[in-house]
Amino acid sequence: MFINIHSSWQNVLSDEFDKPYFEQLVSFVKGEFVTKKCYPKESEIFAAFDHCPYDKVKVVIIGQDPYHGFGQANGLCFSVNDDMPFPPSLSNIFKEIQTDVAQPFPLTGNLARWADQGVLLLNATLTVRESEAGSHQNKGWETFTDAVIQKISDEKENVVFLLWGGFAKKKGAKIDRNKHYVLETGHPSPLSANRGLWFGNQHFTKTNNYLKSLGKEPIVW
Question: Staple 9 to which of 30, 49, 90, 103, CB 3.0 to 4.6 Å?
Fold first, then answer.
């Protein structure tokens, strides 16, 4: 149930699934879903991997926690389900896209359309209790997602990593920058954006220019 992940990732991450920490994590998460209201729904815990198979990864965006409000989280970082209001950080992402690549504000905050083009939208922690931000941190998810980032860094080349804010920069500290294109800026949250640390970063243009330089399809943001 909890390791129902795309077969390409099953092969890459099989060693992690056999480790004691992961068995303990699965036990914890199963217990939480039985006794508490948690997000995203169980079938979407590994949505980031299901939408973006390992061999298709071109870009990685690192988030922190799933949204913990009703109906928001869908397993993709910064993304919300269709018909949900845009959280402030997501609105600021779309504002930057509007300025950077002249793309109009989208009708939906569901970023599955990015993931399907090869953008791995990876939260550090893949589950959360309703209305309790950070409630599933330090239970093993961070170890797992560190391993995911390390695998991509070690075994792939020319991946774009977008590290937004201090947490993501720390999470991506071990990425091999000789093999990959790493872009860093402030977090898109209002606190950071209003201090001038987000807008004008042009990460979306820079990402696409890099992909085009490699002969790869750019992302339609």
Answer: 49
